[in-house]
Design brief:
Length: 217
């Protein structure tokens, strides 16, 4: 089983500019992992390119990323007992980690924008879905996107751990978050270029923690 922190060392080797974030990245992975281990959910929100990053992160967590994540035999057997299609599912489905993006649900989002306010779509979803002990990964390159900031505020009131992913300084998200990963740049596209390897490492760390015994399977 590969040590999840191997991924941190590899990230810092390839992107030494992120070295100051090493300890906070390890803390973020630990907090998210602990929440998932207790049956919690990771929620994600962001705008534009950051919304795409939310979908990307969820995609790496909900199915195999670097590892195969085969189903445990008890789950596979339950599927195999349901005929040829069950056999197919048993061989194809993978284990996943609970990750929900707040960037989808267009019917709900458009209703909230129309009825309540354009900056409340993420916060409304989090308020309805989250439970104490869950985690919100709030992404904003400036740290000041109002709808993301409001979601972080709602999360704190809901008993949710808030992790910010921002550019240098962190903006208002740094003030609201339990932990803020602010990459060392302020230009939007450059911040996003650094966010990607950072969250890939985070996803790999979580995968190693939960599915490390699948490596090489």
């Amino acid at each position: 089983m590969r040590d999840p922190n191997w991924h941190v060392a590899e990230l810092m080797r390839r992107f030494p500019v992120l070295e100051p974030l090493r300890a906070d990245l390890e803390r973020a992975a630990a907090r998210i992992g602990d929440a998932l281990e207790q049956g919690g959910t990771l929620f994600l929100c962001g705008n534009g390119g950051s919304a795409a990053d939310c979908e990307h992160i969820a995609g790496e967590l909900l199915k195999g990323f670097l590892l195969k994540r085969a189903l445990p035999e008890t789950e596979a057997a339950a599927l195999r007992g349901r005929g040829p299609d069950g056999e197919y599912l048993a061989g194809k489905l993978q284990r996943g980690l609970r990750a929900v993006t707040l960037t989808g649900h267009p019917a709900l989002s458009s209703a909230v924008i129309n009825d309540n306010g354009g900056d409340l779509a993420f916060a409304q979803q989090l308020w309805a879905l989250a439970r104490p002990g869950d985690v919100l990964l709030a992404i904003s390159t400036s740290g000041n996107a109002r709808n993301v900031v409001l979601t972080a505020l709602a999360g704190r009131a809901r008993g949710v751990t808030v992790i910010g992913l921002t550019g240098a300084g962190g903006g208002r998200l740094r003030e609201l978050a339990d932990l803020c990963l602010g990459v060392p740049d302020r230009e939007t596209f450059r911040v996003q270029e650094l966010h990607l390897p950072l969250y890939h490492a985070l996803c790999a760390m979580l995968e190693s923690r939960f599915f490390g015994n699948d490596e090489g399977a």
